[in-house]
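User: Hi! I have a protein structure encoded as tokens and I'd like to know what sequence might fold into it. I'm fairly new to this, so please keep things simple.
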């Protein structure tokens, strides 16, 4: 809901500034994203290829909305067959949305967002990392400005908890605050680890 509201505001702003072509292009990508979102609602799994394409469209729209350039780095394991493996939809998008919304605020210099998909011998590792203000400061800001609690993380945990399990294999969600005092580093890393036994194999 947060992204949809802001996306529509961005289209309205482009129309008001008479940047009609930009508004048309933005609206086309926005319609593509909404259509794909609705398509995923009744599906238990989507291929990693579909998910990556969906995420790239989503990030493209977020980058248009942000006045400050943000570097986006993709690290996809070359040995990972994106058409072979499938995961539940909407596991990764909320993590990226939180990075844009709470981490990569306008005061961050040289903002950077990294997304990785790595296949290990027994599991799939997905990571979203930013060099923003860090988890602790983000939570302080949410409290300070009375921001509504994001449901994304709780929904992800709930969806991971009901994945069919073999031999006691369980998925996990991990949050790390990369900000260290006097280290010059900042940011947040959120990772999802899904046993391959809990991923759907398409071929």
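Assistant: Happy to help. Inverse folding works backwards from shape to sequence: for each of the 203 positions I chose a residue that suits the local structure. Here it is:
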């Amino acid at each position: 809901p947060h992204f949809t509201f802001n996306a529509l505001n961005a289209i309205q702003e482009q129309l008001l500034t008479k940047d009609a072509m930009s508004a048309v292009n933005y609206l086309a990508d926005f319609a593509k994203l909404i259509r794909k979102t609705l398509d995923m609602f009744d599906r238990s799994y989507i291929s990693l290829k579909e998910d990556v394409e969906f995420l790239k469209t989503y990030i493209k729209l977020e980058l248009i909305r942000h006045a400050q350039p943000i570097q986006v780095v993709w690290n996809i394991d070359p040995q990972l067959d994106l058409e072979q493996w499938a995961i539940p939809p909407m596991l990764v998008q909320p993590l990226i949305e939180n990075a844009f919304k709470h981490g990569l605020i306008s005061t961050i210099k040289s903002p950077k967002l990294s997304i990785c998909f790595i296949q290990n011998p027994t599991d799939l590792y997905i990571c979203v990392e930013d060099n923003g203000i860090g988890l602790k400061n983000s939570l302080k800001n949410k409290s300070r400005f009375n921001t509504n609690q994001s449901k994304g993380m709780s929904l992800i945990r709930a969806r991971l908890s009901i994945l069919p399990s073999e031999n006691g294999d369980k998925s996990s969600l991990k949050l790390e605050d990369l900000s260290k005092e006097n280290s010059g580093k900042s940011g947040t890393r959120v990772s999802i680890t899904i046993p391959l036994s809990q991923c759907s194999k398409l071929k």
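A useful reference point when you look it over: Helices lie at 2-16, 20-40, 48-65, 93-103, 135-144, 152-161. Feel free to ask if any position seems puzzling.
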